Amino acid sequence: MAILSGYRREQSLGVIKRILSRLKELSTDESAFKKYIKQLTILSRLRKLESETKKEAENMPIHYDIETDGLYIEGLKKGREEGREEGREKMLLDAVKNVMTKLPQTSDHEIADLLNAPLELVMRVRRELSSLQ
Questions:
Q1: Residues of the chain by 3-state class (helix, strand, coil), percent to 5
Q2: pLDDT over 90 (residue 13)
Q3: How would DSSP label each residue in 31-47?
Q4: Distance between CA atoms of 92 and 83, rounded to whole angstroms?
C-alpha cells in the first residue's frame, strides 16, 4: 500500500525501489515475490506509475512476465477482436465494390441482400464510387 501513499511525484522512483527491495526481503520464495510484484504493478496503475514500476522490477533479479497479466491478456483479446472486425468490414466493402463494378445494373437492395450487408453501407459505397467517376 506504500505505493499509494502521499509522496511527491519526483520521489516515486525511490519509493518504488524501496518497496521492491523490501518485498524481496520479505518474500519466502520466487513465486511469492512474483505475486507481490504483480500486485504492486496493479496498484501502481492508480498512481500512473506502472511503467516506472515495471522498469524497476525488470532490473530486479526476478523478472515479471507481463504476458501473464490479466489486463494484458484482456487487452490482447480485445485487440484481436477489433482486428477481426476491421478485416470483416474491409472484406464486405471490397465485395460490395466488386459486385457494383461487375454488375453495375444491380440495385443497392439486391446487393445488400446478396451479400447480407447493411443497405446503408451499400448506398455509401455507391456514392463514393459515383464521386470518383
A1: 80, 0, 20
A2: no
A3: HHHHHHHHHHHHHHHHT
A4: 14
